[in-house]
Design goal:
By secondary structure, the chain is mainly alpha-helical. The protein is built from eleven helices and no strands.
Length: 395
């Protein structure tokens, strides 16, 4: 256990340094060694790239060149998805011991929810902007496949990861991490992405069933999030700031907040064609009544998380794959604010969506550039080095 002296107490080492077994522990360790330390957290780069494309396409107004730029980013996210899936497949085939170590580690297992969200993020971007290249029918087919696969994986992860935490991981009190939200927010992504498919289902029982299934996944994820969030905040209050490399994961709290706001607004858009008038209008009202307060809390958390990141930067926080936490969660706030602007007609929400999108693009460019350099240099695929203890400032 690596100790990070903070203002109050010691905390476990961050998931940025994924657990590793000695090379001699398995005969598989010499096969494709560069894949040994490619963990499930790498799917976050796919999610963070795809959300730049889909969020940009959902912004109110028509910005010249934005649609074309989003199409390029979508293509990049599709390539990244195939690349990371191939790398993770090689990881499981050649380094099964390390893969099992990841699955049984409470700091890493929650990242298995990222596979589900990566599939659906690329699928949604394909239907939103990829159809400009592929055509509408091909884009719809791709999205359906990725949505079904991503939803199935997400629902399994939402059960299996908490199960493992209870019966195998047994994390110590006061060690709750924002990464615990990852498998729980995956069904919320299904709820918002499923809304895009509702109009493509034949009118009748099938369309209504898909709409209500999306609302059920919305509730599943929301209630599970409400269980975990108090644990995360309790850890911060009682144990002090997170370790430096783990500090960016505070942005993960924005994920369920922004994604739930996005989901209720997108589901309200398609409800009139799926359910009767009384329920359709109620869903429209619910989108605003739920979304506005939640977006307010998201902005509060964004300010708190930003302050903690500034503090960590002053204390020497360097680059880690946790920087990708700056991307997808902020992107969900962009789509959430855009949905509220669409339903309320409020210009302030439009400008909020635009401002958050600028922040998203800046964060994506920073994380993407540092990741690319780390891959080319081999630093990100090498065995993790235990972090050096450092004395954090108290201000």
């Amino acid at each position: 256990m690596a100790i990070f002296p903070q203002t109050r107490t010691a905390v476990p080492s961050p998931p940025a340094a994924l657990p590793t077994l000695p090379a001699e522990a398995s005969g598989d360790a010499t096969r494709l060694p560069s894949l040994r330390h490619v963990g499930p957290n790498w799917y976050a780069s796919v999610m963070g790239t795809a959300i730049v494309a889909s969020a940009g396409a959902m912004l109110p107004g028509d910005v010249p060149g934005l649609r074309a730029a989003c199409t390029v980013v979508w293509a990049l996210s599709a390539v990244l998805l195939l690349t990371v899936i191939a790398a993770r497949t090689g990881h499981w085939l050649c380094h099964r011991d390390q893969a099992r170590a990841h699955l049984l580690d409470p700091a890493v297992a929650p990242f298995y929810g990222c596979l589900s969200m990566a599939l659906m993020a690329v699928g949604g971007a394909t239907l939103t902007v990829g159809q400009d290249v592929m055509g509408a029918r091909a884009a719809l087919a791709v999205d359906v496949v990725l949505f079904v696969a991503g939803t199935a994986i997400g629902l399994v992860a939402a059960v299996v990861v908490p199960y493992l935490m209870v019966v195998r991981h047994r994390p110590a009190p006061g060690t709750a991490s924002p990464v615990w939200l990852l498998p729980l927010v995956a069904p919320m992504v299904s709820a918002s992405q499923g809304a895009l498919l509702v109009p493509h289902v034949a009118a009748g029982q099938g369309r209504e069933a898909l709409l209500l299934a999306c609302y059920a996944m919305f509730g599943l994820s929301l209630l599970a999030t409400l269980v975990v969030l108090p644990l995360v905040f309790s850890r911060l209050v009682h144990n002090g700031p997170l370790p430096l490399a783990l500090t960016p994961t505070l942005f993960l709290v924005l994920g369920p907040l922004g994604q739930s706001t996005t989901a209720v607004n997108q589901l309200a858009d398609v409800a009139p064609g799926a359910v009767g008038a009384p329920y359709a209008s109620a869903f429209g009202a619910f989108a605003v009544l739920y979304g506005v307060p939640v977006m307010g809390f998201a902005l509060l958390w964004l300010a708190l998380a930003t302050a903690m990141v500034v503090r960590a930067t002053r204390n020497g926080m360097g680059f880690a794959m946790t920087w990708w936490a700056f991307t997808f969660p902020v992107g969900t706030c962009v789509t959430g604010a855009a949905g509220l602007a669409r339903h309320t007609g409020l210009d302030a929400l439009t400008w909020l969506a635009v401002g958050l999108y600028v922040l998203l693009v800046a964060a994506w460019a920073a994380a993407g550039t540092r990741t690319a350099l780390g891959v080319l240099s081999g630093a990100l695929t090498a065995a993790p080095v235990p972090p050096r203890p450092a004395t954090a400032r108290t201000t």
